[in-house]
Amino acid sequence: MKLQGIRVVDLSLFLPGPHLTMMMADHGAEVIKVEPPAGEPARRIGLRKNGEAVWFRNTHRGKKSLCLNLKDEQQKQQLLKLIDSADVFVEGFRPGAMARLGLDYATLSARNPRLVYCSISAFGQSGPKNQKPAHDLSIQADSGTVFLNEGADGEPCSPAMPVADMAASLMALSGILMALLRRRDTGQGDYLDISMQDSLVAWLPNALGPVFAEGRSPVVKRERSWGGNAMYRIYRTADGRHLTLGGSEVKFAENLFRKLGRPELASTCARPPGEQQEAIEFLQHEFSLRTLAQWTEWFEDLDVCWSPVRLLHEALDEEHLWQRRMVFEDDEGNRHLGVPIKYLHEPAQVNTGLPKLGEHNQSLLPLGQEI
């Protein structure tokens, strides 16, 4: 596997760090999760199956667990010796916390110059907000994306997805892999300052036209991506379900309106977003006349970007995801999310085993530590 032989020591908690190190474990890295005496919080959050939290199962498979109290000097010294043999170190604490523990980059890189050290924080290691505590919702609000998540009533909605968390996870993974690649030539590790806010803001290229071109925020419902385009919005069906049109190219509008008997409305969809109300109102009425199942049959073989709005359990039961192993079931009946990075050569080999808290203390620490 691609990361075989890479040792990762992970002190991060919750979602961004644990998710990125699980992806590394899926591709062969040895990931050692360092947990506080109370354990990783995700062990206790949300619904459980077969004794383990679903959240924990889908962020910690294939890892080893080391339970340490880092305020204890002897245990901290044992961790330092372990880090001496590591390739990657990941932490997700507030800036300054690692320095107070004597686990900052300057200290660790002096001992292990090849170490790639990744810090994930809410707002980054520098800047006036670097000490501000925040999780995903607050970061999205601070970054303008909650504003973009406007409901039908014009009020901002709580975002459905933890995109600040997950953007940071993917940016951190990319940065770590680039640093490891460069280390092959230089023999030198590096330090990564990954901000969840930075990572989220970097995902906004297609949303910033009004901001960068005219110095204003968008009128959300008039923008192409959020309802201003007839061919890129959500419609309600007769049974109270919904479908989406998701391709604003005029060729798709021509195919759709031709079959609906109103070919002249296709040209309306060539107008700027926010000026397509005639087509939107027609489609709202048409889609309200049939059930989602009827529309699913109607759209068969029609070259239009459309999808039903599936309930989450429907989406995760869908055959396509199972065939691609993005959802699979282990021998105990636990469902798992699969691996999105699919190589032809040396593909990931998922180890669905979960470590008990401190399970690997005896094998990883020279003197061993009891929980």
UniProtKB/TrEMBL annotation:
Pfam families according to UniProt: CoA_transf_3
Domain of life (superkingdom): Bacteria
Cited InterPro entries: CoA-transferase_III, CoA-Trfase_fam_III, CoA-Trfase_III_dom3_sf, CoA-Trfase_III_dom_1_sf
Sorted UniProt keywords: Transferase
SUPFAM superfamilies: CoA-transferase family III (CaiB/BaiF) (SSF89796)
UniProt KW Transcription keyword: no
Recorded GO MF terms: transferase activity
PANTHER family in alphabetical order: ALPHA-METHYLACYL-COA RACEMASE, SUCCINYL-COA--D-CITRAMALATE COA-TRANSFERASE
Protein name according to UniProt: CoA transferase
